[in-house]
Amino acid sequence: MDLKTILAPIADDMRQVDDTIHARLRSEVALINEIGHYITSAGGKRLRPALVLLAARACGCTSAEPVLHAAMIEFIHTSTLLHDDVVDESGLRRGRKTANAVFGNAGAVLSGDFLYSRAFQMMVEPGRTEVMSVMANATNAIAEGEVLQLLNCGDPDTDEARYMRVIELKTARLFEAGCRLGALAAEQGDAIQQRLHDYGHHLGLAFQLVDDVLDYTADSEVSGKNVGTDLAEGKPTLPLIHAMKHGSAQQAALIRDAITHGRVDQLEAVMKAVESTGAIPYTRALAERHSLKAVESLGEIPDSPHKKAMIELARFNTNRAA
């Protein structure tokens, strides 16, 4: 089943999210409009806004409030991507040049700041203190995760626990926040909020684990980024960590050198080491365990097309090619 089919129950809502995104991107500053159009026209899965909508509708919410929250979540996510690409000196995302490659680092960073602050304007509109609290905590955690990842870059001594902490903060926290916002829009109590938070937590971890596998296995034309991007940036992701731990001394030394110096010229040899040590199946298996935990978290949510979509989304994630 493809993603469009899975998200069919919220297709109308997602169109409203797109309309909201385009409306709220407008600025009197021409460069912001230009960069905003460039990044939104690139597409993307829009998983984070979809989670807000699925969680809200699965809990019986019929109002338009989740649409606003979904657009806000996407603005925050997009702002982090703009900043990430500058920090990582990335030149390609979703199959085309990054905003910083086209408009320069200054334009990308400042436009990211605009999106971030616009998201906070949207956040306060409903006047819900709980929403502001969830998002303030999530955005702070994301920033911590980004700094931790920066500290890990080029450090071959990064272990699995440090890696998991980074992806928990950097990726899973926004998934968690989106699901919790859906529960809040539906006026659900703490128990259901926690259930949906847990779903987002495990789905977010699984999503990033699969992303890190795809950096070594994906077709670049399908995934929209070059194979070995993480290695070029010196990021010690789980496939590399596992390969260093379970490979030969020679393989470990090779990977350590590649991480330390961003040796993308050693990509072929590193990929052979990753393959021979079972690092890809190991990482995928961990992603699948978190996907199963995500599904288990939905046990108390009433059956509906939206709950079914959330279950299918967890399964889709572990098998996706991009």
Automatic annotation (TrEMBL):
Q: Which PROSITE patterns match?
A: POLYPRENYL_SYNTHASE_1, POLYPRENYL_SYNTHASE_2
Catalyses: 5 isopentenyl diphosphate + (2E,6E)-farnesyl diphosphate = all-trans-octaprenyl diphosphate + 5 diphosphate
Domain of life of the organism encoding this protein: Bacteria
Enzyme superclass (EC): transferase
Sorted alphabetically, the keyword list is:
Magnesium, Metal-binding, Transferase
Q: What's the name of the protein?
A: Octaprenyl diphosphate synthase
Similarity field: Belongs to the FPP/GGPP synthase family.
Question: What is the native source organism of this protein?
Answer: Solimonas terrae
- Single Gene Ontology BP annotation: isoprenoid biosynthetic process
Q: Which InterPro entries match?
A: Isoprenoid_synthase_dom_sf, Polyprenyl_synt, Polyprenyl_synt_CS
Query: What does the record give as EC number?
Result: 2.5.1.90
Q: Where is the signal peptide?
A: none
GO MF annotation: an example: all-trans-octaprenyl-diphosphate synthase activity
Obligatory cofactor(s): Mg(2+)
Report the function annotation for this chain.
Supplies octaprenyl diphosphate, the precursor for the side chain of the isoprenoid quinones ubiquinone and menaquinone.
